[in-house]
Design brief:
Rossmann fold; globular; about 300 residues; alpha/beta; 12 helices; 2 domains; single chain
Length: about 300
């Protein structure tokens, strides 16, 4: 008999959702997805093809996606997480669980939980503690909620790397939000410092100095390319997440100075790229922060 949940639904089939869906299907689980891009003729066929490649079924509606599944994974944008919870409250039944992996504030996770649990289903928050693509299904997740411990064990049986942190909703998200101040802040600092250093022709000296102070981080290796690439590829989404961080800090009386500055710099990079007709996919592989800085400096 197959251990752990055997039927999953992915709500949101972007980077994280599609990777988790593909790996769950490869692990022998029945997986179905629903994404709002299925509702738009211009994007529908591409999304259906993406699901086919992942060996994941595609449902025409949210309601049809969640029928009969044991675990519904919400993997949407921060601004859409409450909409998913509201729909789940109308569609899920006792015995089903909504696993909310979205990067939102503890307060929003609490309100999402209240909606779902009032309808009789279970709600578990997840804080995804690293980028999904490198580790895929094994990306570390901290879970919170009344069913966190049982679900963490169930999900480990299907190959996920889940740890139950607390029975209280919001603790796991607080860990993620506070960590993001440092991680996404470091990305924003690197964008700002390296673009300026490149314009002065001083990047080698700056990076060597940073490497001397923090020799184990890789400042003279791949670290700057990695940090800037994250902002260049996901800057808009990361800026939205940092505004969620700002709300998290405000909820506990901490002025979100650095969080809001990080959001502004992440947005700036995407705006600057757009003004030059650049997208992450157009920058080539392997990604080079120097090439991006040069493109941003060009006039015309």
């Amino acid at each position: 008999m197959m251990a752990g949940p055997h039927k999953f639904a992915l709500i949101g089939f972007g980077e994280a959702g599609s990777i988790l869906g593909e790996d769950l299907a490869a692990a022998g689980r029945a997986v179905v997805m629903y994404d709002i891009l299925l509702d738009t003729p211009a994007s529908r066929e591409a999304m259906l093809e993406k699901a086919r490649r992942a060996h994941v079924g595609a449902a025409p509606t949210f309601e049809e996606a969640v029928v009969g599944v044991q675990v519904v994974i919400s993997a949407v944008t921060a601004s859409s997480s409450a909409d998913v919870a509201a729909k789940a409250a109308k569609s899920l039944r006792a015995g089903q669980v909504l696993l909310d992996i979205n990067s939102v504030s503890p307060a929003k996770k609490l309100s999402n939980a209240a909606l779902v649990e009032a309808a009789g289903a279970d709600y578990v928050e997840a804080a995804v503690m690293a980028p999904v693509p490198p580790q895929r299904l094994r990306v570390p997740m901290l879970l919170g909620g009344k069913r966190a411990s049982a679900l963490a064990e169930d999900l480990r049986s299907v190959g996920m790397n889940t740890i139950a942190l607390s029975e209280q909703i919001g603790v796991a998200s607080a860990v993620k939000m506070c960590r993001s101040i440092v991680i996404k802040g470091l990305e924003a600092l690197t964008v700002e410092a390296m673009v300026a250093a490149r314009r002065f022709g001083a990047e080698r000296e700056v990076l060597e100095s940073l490497n001397g102070t923090f020799p184990s981080m890789g400042w003279t290796g791949q670290l700057p390319d990695y940090l800037v690439s994250r902002a260049a590829e996901h800057g808009r989404r990361r800026a939205a997440e940092m505004r969620e961080v700002a709300r998290t800090l405000e909820d506990v009386g901490v002025e979100p100075t650095m969080a809001l500055a990080t959001a502004a710099r992440q947005d700036w990079l995407i705006d600057a790229m757009t003004s030059k007709g650049l997208s992450y996919s157009s920058l080539g592989s392997p990604f080079s922060w120097r090439d991006l800085a040069d493109w941003l400096t060009k006039t015309g």
